Amino acid sequence: MGKTLADYDLLEFDIDDNDIHDDNREISEELSIVINDDDIACAQSLNIEQKYAYDQILDKVFSKVPGLFFIDGPGGSGKTFLYKTILAAVRSKGLIALDTASSGVAASILPGGRTAHSRFKIPLVMEEHNTCHVSKQSGLAKLMKDASLIVWDEAPMVKKEAIESLDKMLQDINECDLLFGGKVVVFGGDFRQVIPVVPKARAFQKLPSRPPFSPTFVSHSPASSSSIVT
Ligand SMILES: Nc1ncnc2c1ncn2[C@@H]1O[C@H](COP(=O)(O)OP(=O)(O)OP(=O)(O)O)[C@@H](O)[C@H]1O
């Protein structure tokens, strides 16, 4: 029979970084992300559609106006290139830009990237009305409050409840009932690359589980949100 954890002389602390009330740790980690000069320079080589998205998003960020965007484009159309350029522009002004993706692989190619589930403490098993595990007094909540931009790549890969839980959490910690607590949030991805997979579901049950069918997207105010196709 194999050994168990109790057989090893491990420390008995159960550390959850959401419990550490050190406001500065999460924020200083984000502010220490190295900004690549090449990513800043990429602003000069954006194509027309990328430049349009870049200008629209940065306008909202720098004027501190709420904004919700979806960057849609087929594989290889330059979505990641655009995110990197936007993130570098925001971070170069000393602002916090949280960079996430649905999969670890996509997160690992973005500077300072984390999976959305890890960054926002989204429950792995999502059910309706689930919320992110972020305490309002935590350092992580402070980081979310201070963030000027949130990017979530490969958003079509997750169930709509995951995105709704981020919306609820941001509204709660920002004490603001605007979508995503009034933050500038950029979702991106390619629905053409993602086949909705819902175990044992019939065809008509699959699509409604995807983000575009979430009331969060369907009921948005046109004045505060946009969709951009690259
Ligand atoms: N404006 C641009 N100028 C120069 N190179 C670009 C530009 N836009 C994209 N590229 C290059 O095109 C390639 C594909 O771009 P990118 O990886 O951003 O696509 P993507 O839409 O994220 O693809 P996927 O959905 O498969 O992840 C990359 O090598 C990227 O550097």
From TrEMBL:
UniProt cofactor(s): Mg(2+)
Pfam families with a match to the protein in the record: PIF1 (PF05970)
Reactions accelerated catalytically: ATP + H2O = ADP + phosphate + H(+)
Transmembrane segments: none
Keywords from the named record: ATP-binding, DNA damage, DNA recombination, DNA repair, Helicase, Hydrolase, Nucleotide-binding
Domain annotation DNA helicase Pif1-like DEAD-box helicase: ranges: 46-206
EC numbers, comma separated: 5.6.2.3
InterPro entries named among the record's database cross-references: DNA_helicase_pif1-like_DEAD, P-loop_NTPase
Alphabetical list of PANTHER family matching this protein: ATP-DEPENDENT DNA HELICASE (PTHR10492:SF94), PTHR10492
Family of this protein: Belongs to the helicase family.
Name of protein: ATP-dependent DNA helicase
